[in-house]
Amino acid sequence: MSAPGLTDDQLAAMSRMSGLEFLRFAFALPSDQRPAVIGDLFGMRIVSLEEGTASFSIQSLPTAANPLGTLHGGACATLLDSVMGCAVHTTLGAGVGYGTLELKVNYIRTVPVDGRTLTGTGNVIHVGRSTATAEGKVLDENGKLVAHGTTTCMIYS
Q1: Where is the Thioesterase domain (predicted)?
Q2: What percent of the chain is helix, strand and coil (3-state, nearest 5)?
Q3: What pLDDT score does 26 carry?
Q4: Which of 70, 77, 91, 150 has its C-alpha lying 20 to 30 A from 113's C-alpha?
Q5: Can you give the pLDDT of all 157 residues of the chain as single tens digits?
Q6: Residue 65 lies in a domain
């Protein structure tokens, strides 16, 4: 990882961090001191990061509308991919990476693009030597299920 504003010592320290430590450190950096991530595009906010679980929130904004005027499914898919992938990342050792191999999303209801908060939570199901699986849910601010999904991630050292 290279990022403007980070010293060589910080970069070296990050390479020795567990997945959970790395995420907590990287997300605590000001946006001008780290590379841009997909969460920046959606205004994602971290709700929690713990071993085996990650929770982020987004707002349903008109800029993410589909042609019918409701939230595009890609917003929930991106939120699910992010929380499930980061849940897997929290379980990995220093220097171990991952990538989404498969993503399955089920949409339950439409979401108006009126600024309501959606919260996605991902939980690890299994982490092996070469693959990991996780599941996730997206809830609206009233606790209603909007979407849910599963992922398989490749693990690479």
Answers
A1: 69-147
A2: 30, 40, 30
A3: 86
A4: 150
A5: 455 566 777 778 778 999 999 999 888 888 777 777 888 888 999 999 999 999 999 999 999 999 999 999 999 999 999 999 999 999 999 999 999 999 999 999 999 999 999 999 999 999 999 999 999 999 999 999 999 999 999 999 8
A6: yes
Taking CA atoms, 51 is separated from 21, 95, 110, 117, 121, in Å, by: 10, 17, 31, 24, 13
> Which of 42-48's residues contact partners 24+ apart within 8 Å by CB, and which partners?
42/75, 42/78, 42/79, 44/79, 44/82, 47/119, 47/121
In a domain, 3, yes or no: no
Q: How many residues does the chain have?
A: 157
Question: Does residue 83 fall inside a structural domain?
Answer: yes
Query: What is the total count of domains within the chain?
Result: 1
79 touches 120 (CB < 8 A) = yes
Domain assignment present for 31: yes
Q: Which range of residues forms the domain containing residue 66?
A: 8-156
Q: Which residue has the tokens 């339950």?
A: 108
